[in-house]
Amino acid sequence: MWVPVEDMDRARAFYRDTLGLTEQKTTEDWSEFDANGLMIGLNARESAQPTDGGAVITFQPEGGIEAEVEELKGKGVEFTGGISDHPWGRIAPFKDSEGNDLQFYAPPS
């Protein structure tokens, strides 16, 4: 899964420092991060125009979803709809530093 970025340094800082993901590889135009086994690529070669209805990167936080949301809010991340409950699990949508759609997911308990 890859997402377009306008500013690679800003995006790398968000994924590394704000989300706490492990950076695997980086070049001027491409960086890879490991999100619990999901590889997220940051692509500076494509125009980063946020779109409605595009791909959403979903991953499970290591801790509880509430704790992860509160921690990221403390780092200035804006959650667009809070945590919502569904029969298939819970989600908490937010955007990265480049306007790409991300969300945390927790399976039903």
From TrEMBL:
Pfam families: Glyoxalase
Domain VOC: 1-107
Protein name: VOC domain-containing protein
Species of the source: Modestobacter versicolor
